[in-house]
Design a protein that fits this description.
The protein contains six helices and six strands. By secondary structure, the chain is mostly helical. The chain folds into two domains: 63 residues, D-Amino Acid Oxidase, Chain A, domain 2; 128 residues, FAD/NAD(P)-binding domain, CATH 3.50.50. Bound molecules: flavin-adenine dinucleotide. Flavin-adenine dinucleotide binds next to β2 and α3.
């Protein structure tokens, strides 16, 4: 949609979580609508590909900003999760990123402790920052780019989006690659997230 994407994220049991991006004032107006008016407004945007829809829970509004801390660490301090990075929820990646931070930090600290190092020292924490910085920055840029790409009505971009998504859908290997990427299964995955002991 021109003001921002409407992301439909699958949940178990025939339910979805939706992230509907609008200009701040318009979001407040829509969110204040009674359920029936809200659904009437949502339906044409949602489409009919999942059949009839109804509301299953409360609605909330959040201000969305791209935030990326200049430094994830300082002496005896490490930032994880949204304290380190706030990415657009278009791809549902915020929690995954935070869990990867936790896994990476735990691994770095436990290995340092085993070697007898000071776990709060900057040179130890630097390993955590070096590990997570690239993944986080890349994903922040990709989600921001996706958000911009899907937040306008330019006919050339619309055509490009359609062709791009069509190609991904038509090539199973490419689709699998995107799914693995979105599930956080690529790159240097911390042991905890692979279900392994540190
Ligand atoms: C609309 C929306 C949809 C999203 N959808 C998805 C999705 O589908 N998938 C996904 O992976 N991610 C999604 N995210 C992102 C995800 O919610 C966040 O990345 C995740 O919650 C970050 O976890 P966190 O623990 O780092 O921070 P938070 O969840 O923000 O937790 C921080 C906690 O600290 C508390 N706190 C703050 N200050 C203080 C203080 N001074 N003292 C004590 N406590 C304090 C806060 O109240 C809060 O409970 C979405 C985000 C939004 C806004």
């Amino acid at each position: 949609m021109p003001p921002g994407p409407l992301a439909i994220l699958p949940l178990p049991g025939n339910r979805c979580s939706i992230v509907w991006s609008e200009e701040t004032q318009e979001a407040a107006r829509i969110n204040a609508l009674p359920d029936t008016d809200y659904l009437a407004y949502l339906r044409p945007r949602f489409g009919s590909f999942l059949g009839e829809i109804k509301l299953a829970g409360a609605r909330f509004t959040y201000p969305l900003n791209l935030t990326l801390a200049d430094h994830f660490i300082a002496p005896r301090l490490a930032l994880i999760g949204d304290a380190a990075h706030g990415v657009h929820p278009i791809a549902g990646q915020g929690l995954n990123l935070g869990l990867r931070d936790v896994g990476a930090l735990a691994e770095v600290l436990i290995e340092a402790k085993r070697r007898g190092e000071d776990i709060g020292a900057v040179d130890v924490l630097e390993r955590y920052q070096a590990w997570r910085r690239f993944d986080t920055t890349t994903l922040a840029m990709v989600t921001d780019g996706f958000n911009r790409l899907f937040s306008n009505d330019n006919s050339i971009l619309r055509l490009g989006r359609g062709i791009g998504l069509g190609i991904i859908n038509a090539i199973p290997a490419l689709r699998q690659r995107f799914i693995r990427e979105a599930a956080g299964l690529t790159g240097d995955v911390p042991k905890l997230l692979q279900g392994r002991q540190i």
